[in-house]
Every structure is written in structure tokens, then in C-alpha cells.
From TrEMBL:
InterPro entries: Pol/histidinol_Pase-like, RNase_P_p30. Its main location: nucleus. It comes from Aspergillus coremiiformis. Residues 269-286 have a biased composition (Basic and acidic residues). GO terms for biological process: tRNA processing. Gene3D superfamilies: Metal-dependent hydrolases (3.20.20.140). This is Protein subunit of nuclear ribonuclease P.
Length: 313
């Protein structure tokens, strides 16, 4: 299953149906429709309605991209996590990136790699995010759809630096394409990741396994306590049974017992007695010797009494 976890979408987007149909034809199975927020968050955080005429083999998720320049803007991340399926943070500076890697509760860190970054990626900082289950996203759409040579050059250089700093782990690749022309097939994306420095195996994981882990962990965070304990059964009280005070019908077995003739009932009692006798304890050796001795004494006494003759005969 191939994933594309960043497809921009708005409520007035007219080309989203054709983009989703083209993604389904290319072989993608799960698509995340993203909405970008920056600055002060609105009071009502609700994702836009899901578009109609969606292919049946597509699974649609909702995602929010939060542009973060000040790390103190994290009071409502829990609210975002309850309203959207995925929460992605796009840090604008190194301080925001450090806070997202170590403290903030998010699912994806999406970096704008088409601009020249004023800082370098550090392995210790990025590995802390990967250990927490957060993945780094590389979006190829802005560098492919005619954004200029500078954007394409910056995308290649920043992607290589990110892959080198993360040792090729915890990377997902998404399109961020606003039109169907900016979307590429999954194996083309894997070849593009090989150009950036990923192996073919790691490139396939970036659009399959790593993306699946992001969605699974995000769902587990929403439905469980800190992603550790999930309540399966709430322990509801059973409903009280209805008390039928009317006469209880006799069972079929009781009728059969009552209709049995006395001979059969006596045979059943004899069988039960025989089974009880069979279950008696076996005689001990001492008891067997005592009974044998008593039997011999009885035989001797009988012989003596038979050998005595009357005197008058």
C-alpha cells in the first residue's frame, strides 16, 4: 500500500476530484487532505468537508499543517489532535525545530526544503524526534512543478542533508501537489529518493511502511492514554434480567423421568448402587490375610465337627 500524506485541500478547491482520481490510478491507497494554519488559531477548529466523487479504493484522512515560529504557540495542539487525523508542524527557525523534536506532541515534522535554510541539521536533535515516533517529511511537489532552478537546487541539497543527518531513518515522502500534474507514481518517487541519497529499500519504506506507522501511531494517540493504554471494554453493568413470576414449564427431562415405568427406575437405582460399590476402596494386605486366616479356621472347625461320631452308635 502506497501513501501520500500531504495533498493540499480547501473547501473551494475544484481540482481535488481529478487529483484524487489520478492518485488512485497511480496506485495510492491512503491520502491525507491537508489544511495549512499559521498565526493565531481560529476558535472553531474543524476540517473542511470531504469531497464527493472519491474513488472507492481510496482512504481519506484529514491533516493540519501548523506553521510554527514561536515555540510558545503550542497550547492547542491537543485540540488539533482531536479534530484532525494527523498533526504536522512546519518550523520556521531552528528554535522551533528543536522544540518540535523534543517537546511538542505532533505526528510529522514537515520542512520547507525549497528555501535556503539558515541552520544545519544535527543528528542528536533529529534522532530525539525519531525516538518519540515523529517522522520527517520531504515534499517533492514544489521542486517539480516549475518553481524554478533555485527551488529545485535547494530541495535536492536540503533533502540530502536531512537524509545524511537522520542516517536514512524516519523519512516519509509526500507530494504536496495542488494539481494532478504535480503528482508522481510511487516508483518514480522511490527513484527520486534514490537520487537524494536513500537506498531503494529505504525509499520504498518512505512511501509505504514509514507512512503507515505515522497513521497508526496518530490513531493510537487519539484513542488511548498517551499511546500506551487503550480502553477496549468500559465495564458496563449488565442489564437486569426480567423476573417471570408465572409458573415455570416443566422440562422435557423431568417429564421423561416421570413417565418411566417402575422397573426401569429400579434398574437405574441398582445401577447406581453397583457403581457406588465398584468405587469402594480396595482391601489392604493385612485385611486380606486376616480374612484368609478366618476362612481356614472355619474349615478346620467344620472338619472336626464332621469327624465326631455319636457314642450310642
Amino acid at each position: 500500500m502506497f501513501y501520500d500524506l500531504n495533498v493540499p485541500y480547501g473547501s473551494n478547491d475544484l481540482e481535488i476530484s481529478s487529483t484524487l482520481s489520478f492518485l488512485a490510478e497511480l496506485g495510492y491507497a491512503t491520502i491525507a487532505l491537508s489544511q495549512t494554519l499559521s498565526g493565531k488559531l481560529p476558535p472553531n477548529l474543524t476540517p473542511p468537508p470531504i469531497p464527493t466523487n472519491v474513488p472507492k479504493n481510496l482512504t481519506l484522512l484529514t491533516r493540519v499543517n501548523l506553521t510554527l515560529s514561536d515555540p510558545t504557540q503550542n497550547q492547542r495542539l491537543t485540540t488539533l489532535a482531536q479534530a484532525y487525523d494527523l498533526v504536522a508542524i512546519r518550523p520556521a527557525n531552528e528554535k522551533a525545530l528543536l522544540s518540535a523534536c523534543t517537546n511538542l506532541e505532533c505526528d510529522v515534522i514537515s520542512l520547507d526544503l525549497t528555501v535556503r535554510l539558515p541552520y544545519h541539521f544535527k543528528f542528536k536533535m533529529l534522532s530525539a524526534a525519531i525516538a518519540r515516533g515523529i517522522r520527517f517529511e520531504i515534499c517533492y511537489g514544489p521542486g517539480v512543478t516549475g518553481s524554478g532552478t533555485d527551488a529545485r537546487r535547494n530541495l535536492i541539497g536540503n533533502a540530502m542533508s536531512l537524509i545524511r543527518a537522520t542516517r536514512g531513518r524516519g523519512i516519509i515522502v509526500s507530494s504536496e501537489a495542488r494539481k494532478a500534474l504535480g503528482v508522481r507514481a510511487p516508483w518514480d518517487v522511490i527513484n527520486l529518493a534514490c537520487v537524494w541519497g536513500l537506498s531503494q529499500e529505504r525509499g520504498k519504506e518512505a512511501v509505504c511502511e514509514e507512512a503507515r506507522k505515522v497513521t497508526a501511531l496518530a490513531k493510537l494517540k487519539r484513542t488511548s492514554w498517551r499511546g500506551i493504554i487503550d480502553v477496549i471494554d468500559g465495564g458496563e453493568k449488565p442489564k437486569p434480567k426480567l423476573d417471570n413470576s408465572g409458573p415455570k414449564p416443566k422440562s422435557a427431562t423431568s417429564k421423561q423421568k416421570s413417565t418411566l415405568p417402575p422397573s426401569e427406575s429400579n434398574s437405574d437405582s441398582l445401577k447406581r448402587k453397583a457403581s457406588v460399590e465398584e468405587t469402594e476402596k480396595p482391601l489392604s494386605k493385612r485385611e486380606m490375610k486376616r480374612r484368609a486366616k478366618k476362612a481356614r479356621m472355619g474349615v478346620v472347625e467344620g472338619e472336626d465337627s464332621a469327624g465326631v461320631t455319636p457314642a450310642n452308635s
